[in-house]
Design goal:
CATH topology: TIM Barrel
Oligomer: single chain
Number of domains: 1
Distance between the termini: 19 Å
Binding site for Mg(2+): 73, 92
Binding site for 4-amino-2-methyl-5-(diphosphooxymethyl)pyrimidine: 37-41, 72, 111, 140
Shape: globular
Bound molecules: the ligand Nc1nc(C(F)(F)F)ncc1COP(=O)(O)OP(=O)(O)O, magnesium ion
Helix content: 40-55%
Structural class: alpha/beta
Number of helices: 9
Largest sheet: 8 strands, parallel, barrel
Pfam family, one: TMP-TENI
Family: Belongs to the thiamine-phosphate synthase family.
Strand content: 15-25%
CATH superfamily: Aldolase class I
Protein name: Thiamine-phosphate synthase
């Protein structure tokens, strides 16, 4: 997996915006996001054919901009739309099962909050780990206690050069310390999905992360 795909990793579901999610995604793609995760869950989330249809349209958009399209949690949906990969948490499908039953070229991401989860994900063969929550977040109602920059640095030290994307309460002002602490990129939901101008916010994250990574 190309770790630079993690640099500006946008995550969104239909309930993370009051606008048409396809318009928000296209604006974020125009602004330079480097990877996208379709995370359709929680209050008023789409299900069934509506979820399938939205996933197919989002994947098409991402591929118009040569951006990988990842599905959160839902392995069956990811297979149905021929996604580029899946992201699973500690309570979701296991990596070894995914590797046995899903396309061999899939990007497989795993959530990790501590060193043990990170090392386990690496040993299981995850292509990247989503480390956090770095800061407190309102987006994920069942988020664990924030680990802050020090928790990220500790995990970076434990996993060598395994690709890491940081997640949880990330805004433009804390990009630099997160990259300096060892993340290859930042994962953003509401900073882009709730923005008046998702394109310009994505552009700022693109510029800030590129600059920060160049110092690494
Ligand atoms: N969805 C995520 N994406 C990332 C990514 F690495 F992509 F930034 N990291 C962490 C999560 C959280 O994943 P999980 O713990 O299963 O909770 P949920 O399914 O509610 O998102
Ligand atoms: Mg999950």
């Amino acid at each position: 997996m190309n770790r630079s795909w993690l640099r500006v990793y946008f995550i969104m579901g239909s309930n993370n915006t009051t606008r048409n999610p396809l318009e928000v995604l296209e604006e974020a793609l125009q602004g330079g996001i480097t990877m996208f995760q379709f995370r359709e869950k929680g209050k008023n989330a789409y299900t069934g054919d509506m979820k399938l249809d939205l996933a197919q349209k989002m994947k098409q958009l991402c591929h118009q901009y040569n951006v990988p399209f990842i599905v959160n949690d839902d392995v069956d949906l990811a297979i149905a739309v021929n996604a580029d990969g899946i992201h699973v948490g500690q309570d979701d499908a296991k990596v070894d099962v995914i590797k046995r039953t899903c396309p061999s070229d899939w990007i497989i991401g795993v959530s990790a909050t501590n060193k043990d989860e990170a090392i386990q994900a690496m040993e299981d063969g995850a292509d990247y780990i989503g480390v956090g929550p770095i800061y407190s977040t309102k987006t994920k109602s069942d988020a664990k206690k924030p680990i802050d920059i020090i928790g990220l640095a500790y995990i970076r030290q434990a996993v060598g050069d395994l690709p890491i994307v940081a997640i949880g309460g990330i805004g433009m002002t804390n990009v630099f310390p997160i990259i300096k602490a060892g993340a290859d990129g930042v994962s953003i939901i509401s900073a882009i999905s709730n923005a008046n101008n998702p394109r310009s916010v994505a552009q700022v994250f693109d510029a800030y992360t590129s600059y920060a990574v160049s110092f690494r």
